[in-house]
From TrEMBL:
Biological processes, Gene Ontology terms: protein import
Name of the protein this chain belongs to: Biopolymer transport protein ExbB
All copies of domain MotA/TolQ/ExbB proton channel, residue ranges: 130-250
Functional description taken from the UniProt entry: Involved in the TonB-dependent energy-dependent transport of various receptor-bound substrates. Protects ExbD from proteolytic degradation and functionally stabilizes TonB.
Family the entry assigns: Belongs to the exbB/tolQ family.
Superkingdom, taxonomy of origin: Bacteria
Transmembrane parts of this sequence: 72-92, 176-203, 223-242
Source organism (scientific name): Tardiphaga robiniae
Topological category with respect to the lipid bilayer: Multi-pass membrane protein
One Pfam short name: MotA_ExbB
GO cellular component terms, A-Z: plasma membrane
InterPro entries in UniProt: ExbB/TolQ_transport, MotA_ExbB_proton_chnl, TonB_ExbB_1
Location in the cell: Cell inner membrane; Membrane
Amino acid sequence: MRSYSSPSSPIANFDRRNAAPMTRSWSSITTVFVAVSGTAAVPQFAVAATTEALLPHNLSPWGMFMNADIVVKVVMIGLAIASLVTWTVWLAKTIELSRETRSAKRRLDILESDTTLAQVEHDSANARDPVAQLIHSAVRETALSHGLFDDGFKERIALRLERVEQAMSRRISRGIGVVATIGATAPFVGLFGTVWGIMNAFIGISETKTTNLAVVAPGIAEALLATALGLVAAIPAVVIYNQLVRNITTYRALLGDASAQVMLLMSRDHGRRGMPISRAAE
């Protein structure tokens, strides 16, 4: 008996003919998808690595200083030195003014208790404080004017005392000009560091081609640190300068009182001797 094979249906033939091409198509699509995905992933990884490399590892003030540009570092170091100079001048001048003011007050009390020029000279024979120097200067001018007690005698004494006062004022004021300069210029120096740091931050943005805050923030923080140091140097300098000026004004007033007291004693002393004392200097 002869067997007959069943004829194949058109649908089965179509499936067999198209199965292999469809398999190859799906493989191609999968390969393309993987390739595209890999290509897209590489730039993202590179950007992340670049961003991480640009970030400083320490955002503390010291870490920002170490990662700052060389110009910003120089600005910060200069401001730190200026602040150190300010506090050094404050300490030195405070000690000096306190010592000189106490000495002037003590000598002025002695000067007011004495009644004659000879007694004042005896009490201040070995003293070297400012008021004692006023007394020595007046006594020296009296000795130089021996036999010349004319109408210009009092004027010569007043002129010599004024010169001593000015010399003492210049000596006690030495150094406070530096503090005034620091107080006036430190904010602008800090502002220069800020401008330079922000400029570097924008340069970093252009190089990385990203506006990610993690890339921009460190440069701006370094710039603002320079401004903060400028204010730290300037604000105490202004306060210290004003305090020193007030103390120096008080010291000068004490010298003026001592000079006037010396003039009174000399006028009384020479008045008792019947020597003419002019009122020209009054």
